[in-house]
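Quick question, first post here. What does this chain look like in 3D?
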Amino acid sequence: MGPVISPWDVVGSVLPVYLLIVAGAALRKAGIVRKEHDEGVMQIVYNVMLPCFMLDKMLGSAVLRSGPTVFAGMGLGFGLILCGISIGFGVGRLLGLARGTGIRTFALSAGTQNFGFTAAPVVEILWGTGALAMLFVHNIGVELAMWSVGVMIMSGERGIRWRKLVNGPVVAVAVGLLLVATGLDGDVTGAPRKAMSMIGVGAFPLGVLITGCTIMDLVGAEKPSLKIIAGACVVKLLLAPLVFLSAAKFLPIATELRQVLVVQAAMPAAMTPIILARLYGGRTAVAVQIVVFTTVLSLLTLPWIISLGCHWIGLKPVLP
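> Answer (accepted):
Ran it through. Tokens below.
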């Protein structure tokens, strides 16, 4: 079988997402979007715009009418991120890291892929609304892993931060799945549906823009460690993608979930571990380096991982 999609096709498709990140960094550097703006903007995005966007994309989604597919999405969201963290621990030990010198922060940061504001636009561009709806379900499993196992790893304590799981996106997914399961999603039409769509349409552009601002804040904040950066790139841009793509290739799952896993395989490190490191006594400097460098390098690696993954698995993106 010949190539399904070239890396250059992927670059052309996802470049707008990275340009938004660059725009956010430039706006921060110019002082147009200041740090004090971030919290208010993200509160609106995370608790109002994003839930509206998610509901709009989930309602009417055929793939979400399958209970086994929904549970498979959540389960893989939870399980694969734990695989990534385990790989992070293994590579961290090979680097000579230990408890007290950053291994927990390294494992969590290098093993956790971006599953939100960078991933969702790429999924929608490449695959459309069916895969996007599946990403939202998949992310429930990721959120559960981050605020249970992730917190326990970073803090060294036991217990699940259940309150962190009661947030706008999780509630939106729960409501969306309930409406789809009961068949009531078809009744959400007309002016209410249009208003919901209008509110949600800017969620990811704004979220990605603020992500760029945050990355600019992090650049230069900590002295880079070549050992940490190289190890993280091996985990995030080589070993973890192999696990994600193998799951997409060999597991008996829906096509939309395979599509989600291909994009997740190519994602850089998530920012959530930076938050966890700050909250629970981790090595924030380690998390910051991993996020900054894997995000920058992902512009080069993402097209190849997605292209090779599509070729191996036999998927064809719906390119704009």
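The chain has a mean pLDDT of 89.
The chain is about 75% helix and 0% strand.
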